[in-house]
Amino acid sequence: MQITMKNYKPLNWWLGNKIPIKRGCLGILFFILTQTAFSQVYFNRLYNEGVGTNNILVTSSGYFSDIQIQPQNTVGVVSTHFDFFGNRTTRDTTLRTNYNTFRVKTALLDTENEKIYSLIGYKYFNDFGSLGLLIHGPQKKTIGPDINFQDTVSVAPYDIITHEKKIIITGYTWKWQAAEQRYQRHLLLMQLDTLGNKIWEQSYTSKPSFWHLQGYNVIATQEGGYAVGGFGYNIGNVLDVASFLLVTDSVGNKINERYFENPENGNTALLIHQKTNGNFLVAYSKGYENSGPWNAGQRSFYTTVEELDKSSLQTIWSKDFLPGYHNYRSSYKLTRQNDSTFLISGIYWPDRILYEGEYASQLGFIFAITENGDSLWYRDYGSFTEPLEYNYLNDIAITPDGGIVGAGRIETSNSPITGGMGMHAWLFKADSIGCLYPGCDTVYHTAPTLPTVFQVYPNPVGTGQQLNLAAPDVTQATATLYNVLGQAVLQTPLTFEAGKATLFTESLASGFYTLHLQTGTGKRYVEKVVVE
Q1: Buried b / exposed e across 267-294, counting CB within 10 Å, b at 16+?
Q2: Beta-carbon count within 10 A of 433 CB
Q3: Is residue 426 within 8 Å of residue 391, measured between CB atoms?
Q4: 6-29 in b/e burial notation, b at 16+ Cβ within 10 A?
Q5: Cα–Cα dist 241/239, whole Å
Q6: 273 — phi, psi (to 5°)?
Q7: How far apart are CA 376 and CA 515, in angstroms?
């Protein structure tokens, strides 16, 4: 853990030894000092827990997360509190025995009056789905009543919020459709009271061209209803996936809906936020330019952000971000960081055929935009303990000092905890621009130890200066430089002598770029470049 803190003198030096300190004044000073100290904290930690964490919540005393576990014939969570430095302060395991472990899900969390509500989705062995509600209060934890779904084989919660002293849940129920002789996922929207008793439940089926529809995240709208982002799809057909938006009234009745279809490679779940003007800001990832079978790599993905009219749900503007050759990309969280900045986080899996070295692993990402879709910054997150590591960045939240706390899991065969195979909960704290140390570019859990196959230096490079490229096995290649909007701003053929070539930057403005090097043999090398 890396912690940088300023040194503060005692309070009596600030106020004088003879000046009485009243409790309120002392409290204000302590709060100021504490918050200043927190703003200098950076950490990036793995915890020896199974399966990992799907969520993170900022509380008055630190962070809270339910870490999902799956012991024999049980489902459960390890409900864990962390202080602002990432140290575990409490740990409470909740298990439910004699349940099938396959359908387990832990939902996102929210708070109300220092109470935390979390959900476990599971199914009984006799094949009907249930939700288990955990209520974490200041003094103790209680288990609410099981919420059973007799006409389903399973139920999965994907998001939970509290609003006006009610609990709102979205996800899906898996139901048998007798007419079609098949199972179908129905989007679930449900309201509970704060004790876990059901107030109302709504179920939505997909349009005829899709088999399944499921909710992924839910918000309370300014109009007094709810909006759900999710997706519809057909199992077995990766090309047939569409992001989905549902707007309802206060009891879940449908007011409007929209499918975001992409005929190329399909979309992922829709993330949603309502702007102060009432319009919806949505984000989703989609594939394009399919150059081979979906399971053989060579697919391209990018993330799309749109502003939608609050009444018609029609697009006002649309912008694409982060194009690249990936097997997969999914955005998991869209959240407002401050009055003018939104953060989008998720994961991507670089193409193992076209990418080399450290890029052959699943990575987390966070990027920032303005509410009008202007790009601000981008970060990669991973531990890089070995080439085939999977880094799941499942959730982020904004800390009291404006920084970012992220949570997820890491799967690796070179665990720093076990010395071998490991699946660990992952938690990190970054500053307001996603850095784990001042002035960072790419963020790692540990320093990369893989052999370097492509070097770019100096980096950062000054405008107009020479950028040096080193690729030992390359003789001829085409270099393409992309800006943060994915636009190609420079493309030129290069001849490498003894594995080295140069690129000139006199035409480039200051900013962040991605350099793609395409060789004559079909290899592709990628590196980030900062122009100052």
Answers
A1: bbbbbbbbbeeebbbbbbbbbeeeeeeb
A2: 18
A3: yes
A4: eeeeeeeeeeeeeeeeeeeeeeee
A5: 6
A6: -150, 145
A7: 18
- Residue showing tokens 């998720």: 346
Architecture (CATH level 2) of domain 455-531: Sandwich (2.60)
Per the listing, tokens 């199972």 go with 183
* Per-position DSSP letters for 340-409, written without gaps between them: SEEEEEEEEEE-TTT--GGGSSBEEEEEEEETT--EEEEEEEE--SSTT-EEEEEEEEE-TTS-EEEEEE
DSSP strand pairing (524-531 vs 488-495): unpaired
Contacts of 224 (CB under 8 A, 6+ apart): 249, 250
Amino acid at residue number 189: L
Successive 10-residue mean pLDDT values, the chain, 532 residues: 25 27 40 43 81 84 84 76 91 70 56 78 63 77 77 83 90 82 88 90 89 93 97 71 95 96 78 95 79 48 91 94 71 90 88 47 87 87 70 92 91 80 88 78 42 71 87 84 77 89 86 79 72 86
Q: Do 33 and 52 contact (CB within 8 A), yes or no? A: no
Instruction: Please say whether the beta carbons of 345 and 363 come within 8 A.
Output: no
Pair of tokens at residue 514: 């991605």
Tell me the whole-structure pTM to 2 decimals: 0.73
The first and second tokens of residue 510, run together, are 């200051």
Please report the sign of the dihedral spanned by the C-alpha atoms of residue 180, residue 185, residue 190, residue 195.
positive
Q: What is the pLDDT of residue 43?
A: 86
Q: What secondary structure, in 3-state letters, does 309-348 show?
A: CCCCCCEEEEEEEEEEEEEEEEEEEEEECCCCEEEEEEEE
pLDDT at 246: 98
The pLDDT value recorded for residue 509 is 87
How many Å apart are CA 80 and CA 295, to the nearest integer?
37
For 182: left if phi > 0, alpha if psi spans -120 to 50, otherwise beta; the answer is beta
DSSP state letter for 41: B
Total residues belonging to the chain: 532
- pLDDT at position 293: 43
Whether the CB-CB separation of 86 and 1 falls below 8 Å is answered with yes
Cα–Cα distance measured from residue 62 to residue 161, given in angstroms and rounded to the nearest whole number? 19
pLDDT confidence of residue 83: 93
- How far from 526 is each of 346, 350, 455, 516, CA to CA, in Å? 20, 11, 10, 5
Which of 364, 290, 369 minimizes the C-alpha distance to 329? 364
Neighbours of 165 (CB within 10 A): 9
Start-end ranges of CATH 2.60.40.1930 in the chain?
Answer: 455-531
Structure tokens at 453: 């196959």
